[in-house]
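Exercise 7. Given the encoded structure of a 183-residue chain, write a plausible sequence.
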């Protein structure tokens, strides 16, 4: 009798394990947490807030700094992606994490953006604001990219490193958002 129960238990466990190997995509493990609210200015001095997320189906937010060679190197690639994403109602926002520290840092960021032909919005966060203190200052790897839905939720973990090298992940998350929004 014990052998029969053990055999039935083993069969049930095997069935459950194989069911987990289904080819159907399960996005239930993709995290969804609110992106921090912000009220900042961009690198040209215009106000920008987290309400901008509601204007797009999805927003890709790329954090960079003036001293990050990889960040600067990928800007033309990001610009190319931005131009293609606009048709899909996907926005791209850069965050020059050190550009709000002083006038010299802002001027350096503006020069970099101009030289790289960047047309997408770049936030210049004020180090005295909560957005910087509670979120931006906690980013230790650059570039770091977040995917955010129209409700302001971060979809998945941060993507650290060159975006184009991780396009599979970016596209999966964007498809997840666009599928939910019906776009």
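Solution.
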């Amino acid at each position: 009798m014990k052998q029969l129960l053990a055999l039935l238990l083993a069969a049930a466990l095997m069935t459950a394990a194989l069911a987990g190997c289904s080819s159907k995509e399960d996005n239930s493990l993709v995290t969804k947490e609110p992106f921090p609210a912000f009220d900042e200015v961009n690198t040209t001095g215009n106000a920008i807030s987290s309400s901008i997320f509601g204007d797009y189906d999805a927003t890709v937010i790329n954090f960079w700094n003036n001293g990050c060679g990889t960040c600067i190197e990928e800007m033309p690639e990001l610009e190319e992606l931005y131009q293609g994403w606009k048709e899909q109602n996907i926005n791209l926002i850069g965050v020059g994490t050190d550009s709000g520290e002083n006038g010299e840092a802002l001027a350096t960021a503006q020069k970099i953006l101009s030289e790289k032909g960047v047309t997408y919005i770049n936030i210049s966060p004020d180090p005295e604001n909560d957005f910087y203190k509670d979120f931006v200052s906690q980013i230790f790897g650059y570039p770091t990219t977040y995917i955010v839905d129209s409700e302001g939720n971060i979809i998945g973990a941060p993507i650290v490193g060159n975006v184009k090298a991780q396009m599979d992940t970016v596209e999966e998350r964007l498809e997840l958002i666009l599928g939910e929004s019906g776009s």
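Remark. Residues 1 and 7 are 10 Å apart (CA to CA). Students should compare their own answers with the one above.
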